Structure formats: structure tokens, C-alpha cells
Amino acid sequence: MSNKLRNLVILHEQSVSNNIALPKKLQKYIGQQRGKPAGTHKENVDWIPVNTPMNETQRDLHINDVFKWIEQHKGVDWNLFGYATAVRYNDQSLELINGQHRIELVKMLLPDQMWVPAHIIDISDDHEYAAKLFAAMNGVSSRKLTSEELFWAECISKDPFALYVKTWLERCDIACGKVNGGNKRKNVKHGGFVKCLRMGEEATAKAVELIDAAWPDQGIDDQVLVGLARLLSLDEYSDMAKPETKIGADFEQWFVEQFGMNHRISDARFNEYKNTMQWFNGVAYGIAQRFRHYQKRMHRTSSERIPKIELIEKIYKDGIQGINR
């Protein structure tokens, strides 16, 4: 560690609030910044001290979010900071109502930065108005980005994980919001698709393929997608995703030509099994149970073609008891 960085680390330890230590793996970003604070070269721009007290409406500090931003942006990016917002009372005292986490980031990485640009609102002694301002700036009078809108922006910025998800959307020939949109592709929710990929990439691709084949004229139900991917991702049921196996060929034929032809996609949500901690496990159980009944009728003497139900049944029932698996 250079003497300059060592001195900055000492300053950081002296100035950071709440006695929060910066993890060692992030200390290399101390002193790193990009861009310039808003208003640096403008007259009549307000600045407030980094230690401006919080208004009582402020949320709790989520320090892990700050650590995540440090790692993502590798320092302080002033181009993303903008302005903090503070209220000023008749006695000239200030209270921060927006920008807590951004200021905490500055305090951690730039310990010699004692001021930040801010929008100061004079409100006399109207504390209720201060609370209204905080609420309005944090969701009441502003619209948060949806997961799909944020995903689109992350793809444009070439975020590695977003590009990974985009790759699998392309492989499955489906869209998520604007990502891989066009050509009348079926759409999925970002959160559900990511959950599927974390269960198993190939299981996800097979689930999309089966759902599209079973209901070609309907969209993809996200709950059904996650439930089917969950089932096919479990080792005990993985052969059901392989059409080259006997049980895999039977499952595909049943799901597409029997279940799909005679039911709406909403029926595959198995609402009767929604009482578990994670509904998609109920969906997986419903699909496995329904297929097992079909196989027992069709292949009474062939046990290798009748899927076992015990594992997914236990996962489903554990969820009813509050056990997450």
C-alpha cells in the first residue's frame, strides 16, 4: 500500500460515520473518483457538509448497498451523484432528506471531501412538509424503474450479468421488456427468468420450449415457467427434460399433446398448491403429480416410466411448514 493510500485509509477511519469499517477488498478504491461534483464551475450553487444531520424521516442506512456501489463503480462517480437534498429552517440549521447513501459513499472513499453539492429548500419550521418532501422523492410522487427497465439500461451499459441473461433470452428466442424484443417474441418477467437460470440454464431453456409448444398462441406465464424449470432442474427429474429417454419422451408428449391441448396455461399454475412458501414449488409438484397419474394409467407395468413423487412432494410440503428448500 502506498503512503498516499495509507494516509487516505487513516482519514477514512477517522471520518466515516457509525464506526463502519470499509472492507479490505474495497480499500483500494479510496481516493478514486470520476467526473466532477455538479455545480463545480457555477456560481450560486449550494453545498452542504457531508455530516449534515438526517431528517427524522430518513430510512435506515443500508451499508451493503454502499459497498455494492463501490465495487460496481470502482470509486465515487460524481456523474451519478447529482445533488443531495436538504431542508433549511428559520434558524439556518440543515437536515438531509435525500442522498444519505450517496454521501456515505463519499465519506468512505473521499475522506477529505467535506462538502457535497445540494439543493437546499427553505421551509421555515414546517417539519410536516419536510416529511412530505422525503416521501415524494422516494416513491409517492416519482416512478421507480421496473426490473425490466433497469435490465434494459444494464444491457446498454454492458453489465456482465445482464449480458449473460440477455444471451439466454436469445437462446430461448424470448424477450424481457425491450431486451431481445421484436418479431412478436413472447415476453417474460426479469425476476422470474433470472430465478430460472439460477436453478439451471438447460432446464430453463427446456421449460420455455415446452410451454411454447403446449400453448403456442398464449404468452408465457412466469409462475408456470419457474415451476417447470424448478422441476426439471432437480436431479431426480432431470430425465423428464431429455426427449431421448423414455420418460422424457413421455413427458414431452403428455405436456404438449395432453395437458396443453386440454387445459389453459393458467391451469398449470395449480392454485390449489399456492399455500406453500414458494409457489413455484407447488407448481412443480402439481405438474409432477398430474404426469404421474397419467403415466400410471398408460404404463401400469413399466415402473421406469412412472416418475417418483416423493422428493418434490416433500419440498412442497416443507414449504407449507415454513421450511425453505
Order of helices and strands: HEEHEHEEHEHHHHHHHHH
Task: Give the helix tally.
Answer: 13
* Strand-pairing-aware structural class: alpha/beta
Number of strands: 6
Please mark out the parts with pLDDT under 50 across 5 or more consecutive residues, or reply none.
4-12, 14-18
The fraction of residues in strands falls at 5-15%
- The side-by-side strand order for the widest beta sheet comes to 2-6-4-5
Q: How many angstroms separate the termini?
A: 44 Å
- Give the domain tally: 2
Based on CA atoms alone, the radius of gyration comes out at 27 Å
Major pleated sheet: 4 strands, mixed
Describe the overall structure.
It contains 13 helices and six strands. Strand 4 and strand 5 (94-98) form a beta hairpin. It is an alpha/beta fold and 325 residues long. It has a four-stranded mixed beta sheet. Strands 1-3 form a two-stranded parallel ribbon. It folds into two domains: 3-140, no CATH class; 188-320, no CATH class. The protein is elongated and about 85 Å long.
